[in-house]
Write a structure and sequence with these properties.
Layout: H1 2-17, H2 25-80, H3 84-126, H4 130-146, H5 148-175, H6 178-181, E1 188-191, E2 197-203, H7 208-220, E3 227-233, H8 239-251, H9 256-267, H10 275-284, H11 289-296, H12 299-314, E4 322-327, E5 330-334, H13 339-348
């Protein structure tokens, strides 16, 4: 600062001392003396100004340092005082706000990127011309025509997946009616009365699928000592079925073996069973026909049939056979199939 002032002073002096006309030697001597005095005065003035500038800078620096110290003291005081936690928390909150802002910004960026990706996919899709689309479809049709088993397999796989999902939902629904389904009253009990694995069967005696399933069950049930069977005859195929169901429920009053022998003869028949055929078959198998007829006319049997019908409606059944298995893992819906599939289902049951 001092040097700058000195240079300015010298430049000013030179400018002032510059002669406008040629002077005599004696004038030059006087002029030189005056110039020296002026330069000296300017130098002193510049020096004084530089000192003042230096003092000003020092004062400003000192003031800044004092201000910083004052701030430090305030901070130190606030740390020692009751407001310390508040101050620190405010700073932390501020940092937290910054982090929140960064997270939000990141999320916004990710959303933007996801949007860009979707837009890119849409752009790719829209970039396909109708002619290209037609070519793609043609290739697909040609592939299916040459490999029809691929389409069949895909349809089967889709059907199996849909069936699994449907059976799972149906089993969840049946689990809600577990107590009703596993009530001994109104059911014909077979297998082990104390079995842990329980099988509930709603069947119509004139239903072909029901006959097939009951025949398989009769053959394999002896293989599973822990199986308890709840048979609930449910007539959904007309008056003939209602009469036969009444006869089967009445036959069970003479013992499970009597019921089972009748049910198996019906299951092995290809004829539609009615009341007259049923009574004839009962006599052939050695049932007490008088007791049978009396039970068929009783209010007790009618109430049992009505109760099973109301239960079927309550749980939303609309077809026979409906087979529900309960084990340690919950309810399962069994699809009537061949003997081996039934054996596998019973073998896989968790006691």
């Amino acid at each position: 600062m001092f040097k700058a002032s000195l240079i300015l002073a010298l430049l000013a002096t030179v400018a002032m001392a510059a002669p406008s006309a040629v002077k005599q030697p004696e004038d030059l001597l006087k002029s030189d003396a005056s110039a020296d005095k002026a330069i000296s005065d300017k130098v002193k003035t510049a020096s004084t100004e530089a000192d003042k500038s230096t003092e000003t800078i020092k004062d400003a620096t000192k003031s800044s340092e004092q201000s910083a110290k004052t701030d430090e003291k305030k901070t130190v005081t606030s740390i020692a005082a009751d407001g310390t936690v508040k101050l620190i928390e405010e700073k932390k909150e501020s940092a937290s706000d910054d982090k929140d802002f960064e997270v939000k910004a990141l999320e916004a960026g990710e959303t933007s990127q996801a949007g860009d990706a979707k837009a890119g996919d849409a752009s790719i899709a829209s970039s396909i011309t109708p002619a290209q689309q037609a070519d793609i479809e043609k290739v697909m049709v040609n592939f299916i025509e040459k490999n029809p088993e691929f389409l069949v397999k895909a349809i089967q796989s889709y059907g199996e997946q849909q069936q699994k999902e449907m059976l799972k939902k149906e089993a969840e629904k049946m689990a809600k009616f577990k107590d009703d389904l596993l009530a001994d009253s109104n059911a014909i009990i077979g297998g082990n009365p104390n079995g842990i694995v329980k099988l509930v069967v709603f069947a119509d005696p004139n239903c072909p699928h029901c006959r097939h399933f009951e025949a398989n069950l009769s053959e394999v049930k002896g293989l599973y000592s822990n199986l308890k069977i709840y048979l609930r005859p449910w007539p959904i195929m007309g008056k003939e079925s209602a009469d036969v169901v009444t006869g089967l429920m009445s036959a069970a009053k003479q013992g499970y073996d009597k019921y089972d022998s009748l049910a198996m003869r019906i299951a092995s028949s290809n004829e539609k069973m009615d009341k007259q055929k049923f009574l004839k078959l009962s006599k052939e198998l050695g049932l007490d026909t008088k007791k049978l007829q009396k039970a068929m006319d009783s209010e007790e049997v009618r109430k049992e049939i009505k109760s099973n019908h109301e239960l079927a409606v309550k749980i939303g059944l609309d077809a026979t056979p409906t087979i529900v298995m309960f084990d340690a893992e919950g309810a399962h819906i069994l699809i009537p199939g061949d003997k081996e599939s039934l054996k596998k289902s019973l073998a896989d049951a968790k006691a």
